[in-house]
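Hey, I'm writing a tutorial for new members on how sequence and structure tokens pair up, and I'd like a real worked example in the thread rather than a made-up one. If someone can provide the structure for the chain below, I'll link this post from the tutorial.
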Amino acid sequence: MSSFVTEPRVELIGKPIIEIDGVMRFLNEHDYDWSEFTDKLESMISLGDDDGEWLVEFAGRMCYQSWPKCGEKSKGRKHEDHVKHLIEVGHGAAIEHSTYTFAIWDVSRSLTHELVRHRIASYSQLSQRYVDSSSVRFIVPPAMQELEKIDPDAYRAWIEHCERSRQLYEELTAKLSDMYGDTESKLERRKKARQAARSVLPNATETKIIVTMNARAVRHLIELRANPAADVEIRKLAVKICRILQDKAPLFAHGLGIVKLQDGTEGVESKYKRV
């Protein structure tokens, strides 16, 4: 019997780490005094969750050499204001230096077809050629969840269609494996069978994917996919990614606000678009 899920899942699994020794060698060689940075380091080995934001400030200051010389008064904006200002004026290139890696699962293949259109990213997705789909799960689209309330028979027909497609996949995989029985490599035989049998699986088939994006691309993803006009499934994912950004790198979420939409779902409004 097939399993069905309704909510996308996402976890942050990778984020920037500043190489502090390298930063200090650069500052010392140029006689720069980045006191706000060095003061924070006095009691810390790493900047923790803030590494990516400090890295972006470093990149922004590099453009204008805006560090004071040793012995001079501190000049320019404070750390938080500096990063926020980069977003406010649309200096998006600077925030590209921080990258974040997400593990995403309990999403449909139709969602990942949209997700991978965001080209400024790196993707590693579950392979249906190498991974057996006999126990695959299916994602129930939000509209189908609503349909269940008003037309249970139509919803049941959709459930049965998914189950039949999974059963047919199993049957075809077995028959195709027999057909390729002369193939010496067991792995190759399975791959050939699965890559043909997967053609019967619907877009609702669950998949898993690793996504690495820079902070600018993450903001762009949120702005486009948490928009009210976006598909509800990917909008839910984008809102969850926005929450992660607000928690782990709040300066990069500057101007992004989660709002309740008329249909009861959530979206994100952006004060500073096209950063």
